[in-house]
Amino acid sequence: MTNKTKIKKRHLAIFLLVLLPVLFLSWRSLSHRYSAFNQLLNRPGVRSNVVIEGSPWMHNNLPTFVIRMFGKLKLRTLFVTTDEDLAAAAEVEKCQEVETLCFDDKNRLTSAGLIHLPHFSQTKGFLGESYLFKDSDLKQLGQLSELNVIRITLHEEITLEGLSELKSLKNLNRLLIEKPYHGPNVEELWELFAQMPQLAEIQIFDKIEGQPLVLTDRHLEQLPEPVNWSFLHLPSYD
Length: 238
Fold this sequence. Notes:
Blueprint: H1 3-41, E1 47-53, H2 56-61, H3 64-70, E2 72-82, H4 83-90, E3 100-108, H5 111-114, E4 125-133, H6 135-141, E5 149-154, H7 160-163, E6 174-177, H8 186-193, E7 201-204, E8 208-209, H9 217-221, E9 231-233, E10 236-237
Parallel strand pairs: 2-3, 3-4, 4-5, 5-6, 6-7, 7-9, 8-10
Antiparallel strand pairs: 1-2
């Protein structure tokens, strides 16, 4: 055996000695990651939409278990039903990056569960129209700084102060408020939304009690420049 061959074998042995622990640790990490996530999905009140991101070459040429090991687990949507579901999801690291967090139509959530909302720090969409949001709940929602879409239903005791918690969401692009609407009148809403020029779409899907909004110079003077609004829907009745 030549010296050159010995050197090659030695390099191969060193390479394997380094590679095998890395693969083992990757497998352990993957097992732990999927174990915690699978335990969450085994809860009866939790549903999700998950994809494994990777290059086209990876998906076309590698076994599924390898793709899962080296691909990126991407959680598109997470549905929760109870306070316990939301608390359990907040403990799973991958859930903190969910793109859209949704409350199930048959949810049994309370304000006690919503204290876990700030854990979902990377969430960009929030669909919670099946739950009646109170002022304290909006304070929790206002901590999700990456949100760009919100669709919610408001509790009849909602106040302008509670809605003002959403002003801190500088990335918020769409604000959709479902029926039944209970809250500030259109004049108060205008003053609030004038402080949220980043919004492109604002819709309230129910009639707002009080006089319809008639725009005057005073209203327009309240608007900063520039304003991103492209759709504003504030229906009202006497």
